[in-house]
Structures are given as C-alpha cells and as structure tokens.
C-alpha cells in the first residue's frame, strides 16, 4: 500500500500532456489549453488610443487651447496640431502624433473655439500607447495557457481566429456489479440503483469533458475482460468503478492484468478509496475506482482530476486548497489519512456527520474535502485544517 503523496506523484509522472494537438477555431476552444505559444501579429493597441472622451492637446505653458475639430472612434483623421492647439476626441479614437495628452471633458471649459483646462496635465495622460498590451512579434499567450473567456477575447482582439490546443480526452466510464439496475428499472430485493456513472459523468461535465461513454458489465470475468479491452483500445482515459477489491467476484484487477494494462499502483493508504488502481496501456490511462460511491468520487477529485489536468497540459494539476478553521469538533476514526466531506463557508469549515464511503448523501451536502492526516485524531473547533475546494 502506498501513501497518498506517492500515489499522486505517480499519477503526475504518468500523465504528462500526451493528447493530440489539434487546430481549432477559437469559438470551439474554450476550456482547452494552448499546445503552442502564440505570438502577436499586431501591436495592441494598434495605434495610440484615447482613453477618455475629451480633448487631445499639443501641450504648451498656458491652460488655454485653440480647438480645431474632432476625431471620433474609427476615424482615420490625423490632424497636425501645433503647440497650444487641441482637437475634440472620443474614447477609442486615434490620438494624432502631434498630441501628447488627452484631457477628460469634465476638466475643460469650452467657449466657442477656445477651451480652458481647469487643472494642469502631464505628458501622456489618458493616451494608451501603441503596443502597450503586446507588441507585434512578442508572446501573446504561452503554451499551457487555459483558454478562458478572457484569453479567447484577448486572442480575438489580436485578430487570431485559430489556435493549436490539446484536444479533450475520449473517456469511458465502466460500472461493474450484478446488483446494479438502472434508475428506470424496478428495484427488486438485493439490487441497488446504479449511480456512479451518472455522478462521474456529471463531475466530468462540470470540468468541461463531454466526450464520455458509459458501459455496464456484470460480475463476469470474460465479459469484464472483453469490455475493458475494447474500452482501453478506444479511449484516452478509462474510469472503472467497483470490482477492484478482494472479493471472489471482484474481477477488474485480474482482467486489467490479463489485457496487459500495466499497473502503476494498486491500494493507497487513505480513507475512503483504499483499493484504488491506476495503470496504463499504450497511450490510455486507466483508473479503477472503488465501487462505494463516496470513495469513487473522492478518488475522482484527488487523482483522476490530476490526470485530466496533466493530460490537457493544464496547471495547477491539483484542486485548490485553503487552510480553514474547524467550526465544530470532529473525532476521526481509524489510522488511515482521511478525506472528509465538509462545508466550507467564509473561511470556516464544518466536517459533516456520515463519512462512510457508501454515503453519498453527505457528499451531496458538501462543497469541500478536509484532509486529516494519519496523526490527526480529535479535531477541536479553531484547529486549522487543509481544505480542498471542490469544483462544483
Ligand atoms: N475483505 C475486504 N473487503 C473489502 C475491503 C478489504 O480491504 N478487504 N475493502 C473495502 C473497501 S475499503 C472498499 S472501498 C470496497 C471497494 O470494493 P469494490 O471496489 O470492489 O466495489 P464493489 O464491491 O463492487 O462495490 C462496493 C459498494 O459500492 C456499490 N456500488 C458499486 N458500483 C456502484 C455503482 N455503479 N453505483 C452505485 N453503487 C455502486 C456496491 O453495491 C457496494 O455496496 O471494498 C471493501 N471490501
Ligand atoms: O477504501 Mo473504502 O472507501 O474505505 O470503503
């Protein structure tokens, strides 16, 4: 059994960006990561711009200026101002080379074609210099940048319409177990509704992964082997739930070994999620998560999340963590380090009752996981604990 840190490091080491680089229109690239550095083909802004509605001035010693005409946004006019001359100008309009400051109109009194400044102004005021944000030929955004709405807007402002990105992985979720029935079917004795696939599909969807197929297999060795073999051949990431423990009908480990998925680790000293498997075959990464729903989802956020971020070339690879003060006492059972379902609110965190790995109800109320290491037992109000914020 390996430690949580060792397991996380093994996931990090074995999921370097390996997804296909593809060219995409920026309209379809939101949430993806740049696979190549982008250099600007233009200066941004492309010309000296007025940052205010007001008057462009060719500065001189007096506060009075002779007004010549006007320049609106989009105009190509470039009047030559002599010292002491001004031109009416609007936000976003080109500032002529002969002007060296723009005074906002609130600080100007106008009388016919003479304007008087109500205070003095220094060189460069309210002028956005050409290339202030980025110069032609300079780096606009580096490889590895996440294409957020702002990043896509910025690239659009540079006239960039296509980008090279790491494509989203093709993902398969496989559920295992004779006891599982779909929520549309009648629930007979001994059966439970299958919920891990819906839960994991939603967790993936919330992170922007939509190329997800779901498969189901009974506790049958041959069928498990065949399905896993096909799924591993056809996907970048395979997430299996259940059948990975030591029971006589837990066939996943044996089947993965048989279809030559190389084991990178199996079993992590943690609660929940002890019987966690991670492996790979060619370019496909495989996680076998424990079937217990809360254990499955915890392992998803702690380990599968790292793999997804890394495969997509994104940073940081782990979920955000904060140090939060506990609002209520909590007694930890057992000696395994634990991820505890919790509610984080305004800097404080409350660990919820019902931490059993089968209990999804508690997870449904949580927005964070508190990490309690091996040594931690009684946690008192006011104690500070590492709190992992869930991307929900
Ligand atoms: N002798 C031992 N038994 C168990 C050990 C152990 O060390 N020795 N470990 C326990 C721990 S810890 C966990 S976690 C579970 C993991 O077992 P599996 O990964 O093999 O999962 P299953 O047995 O298939 O299922 C466990 C539990 O979860 C329910 N389940 C499974 N799939 C789904 C699904 N898709 N939707 C909803 N619920 C699901 C299943 O019915 C079981 O109740 O092993 C312990 N045993
Ligand atoms: O590893 Mo398990 O999730 O404690 O029941």
TrEMBL record:
Keywords: Magnesium, Metal-binding, Molybdenum, Molybdenum cofactor biosynthesis, Transferase
Ranges for domain MoaB/Mog: 172-310
Pathway: Cofactor biosynthesis; molybdopterin biosynthesis
InterPro entries listed in its UniProt record: MoaB/Mog-like_dom_sf (IPR036425), MoaB/Mog_dom (IPR001453), MoCF_biosynth_CS (IPR008284), MoeA-like (IPR038987), MoeA_C_domain_IV (IPR005111), MoeA_C_domain_IV_sf (IPR036688), MoeA_linker/N (IPR005110), MoeA_linker/N_sf (IPR036135)
Catalytic activity field: adenylyl-molybdopterin + molybdate = Mo-molybdopterin + AMP + H(+)
EC main group: transferase
Named cofactor requirement(s): Mg(2+)
EC number: 2.10.1.1
Domain of life, source organism: Bacteria
Pfam families linked: MoCF_biosynth, MoeA_C, MoeA_N
Assigned protein family: Belongs to the MoeA family.
Function noted in UniProt: Catalyzes the insertion of molybdate into adenylated molybdopterin with the concomitant release of AMP.
Record's protein name: Molybdopterin molybdenumtransferase
């Amino acid at each position: 059994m390996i430690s949580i840190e060792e397991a996380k490091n093994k996931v990090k080491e074995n999921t370097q960006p390996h997804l296909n680089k593809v060219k995409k229109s920026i309209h379809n690239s939101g949430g993806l990561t740049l696979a190549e550095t982008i250099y600007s083909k233009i200066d941004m802004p492309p010309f000296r711009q007025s940052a205010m509605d007001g008057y462009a001035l060719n500065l001189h010693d007096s506060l009075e200026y002779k007004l010549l005409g006007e320049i609106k946004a989009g105009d190509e006019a470039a009047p030559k101002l002599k010292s002491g001359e001004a031109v009416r100008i609007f936000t976003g309009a080109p500032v002529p080379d002969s002007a060296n400051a723009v005074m906002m109109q609130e600080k100007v009194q106008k009388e016919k074609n003479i304007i008087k400044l109500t205070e003095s102004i220094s060189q460069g005021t309210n002028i956005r210099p050409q290339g202030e944000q980025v110069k032609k030929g300079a780096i606009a955004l580096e490889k590895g940048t996440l294409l957020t709405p702002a990043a896509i807007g910025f690239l659009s402002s540079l006239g960039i319409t296509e980008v090279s990105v790491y494509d989203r992985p093709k993902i398969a979720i496989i559920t295992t177990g004779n006891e599982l029935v779909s929520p549309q079917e009648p629930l007979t004795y001994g059966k439970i509704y299958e919920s891990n696939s819906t839960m994991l599909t939603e967790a993936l969807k919330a992170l922007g992964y939509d190329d997800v197929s779901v498969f189901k297999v009974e506790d049958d060795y041959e069928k498990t082997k065949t399905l896993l073999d096909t799924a591993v051949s056809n996907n970048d990431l395979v997430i299996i739930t259940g059948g990975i423990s030591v029971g006589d009908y837990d066939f996943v480990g044996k089947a993965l070994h048989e279809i030559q998925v190389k084991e990178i680790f199996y079993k992590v000293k943690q609660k929940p999620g002890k019987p966690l498997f991670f492996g790979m075959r060619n370019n496909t990464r495989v996680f076998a998560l424990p079937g217990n729903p809360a254990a499955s989802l915890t392992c998803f956020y702690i380990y599968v999340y790292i793999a997804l971020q890394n495969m997509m070339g994104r940073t940081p690879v782990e979920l955000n963590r904060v140090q939060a003060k506990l609002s209520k006492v909590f007694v930890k059972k057992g000696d395994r380090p634990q991820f505890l379902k919790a509610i984080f609110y305004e800097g404080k965190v409350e660990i919820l009752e019902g931490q059993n790995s089968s209990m999804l109800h508690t997870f449904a109320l949580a927005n964070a996981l508190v990490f309690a290491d091996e040594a931690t037992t009684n946690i008192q109000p006011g104690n500070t604990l590492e709190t992992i914020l869930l991307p929900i």
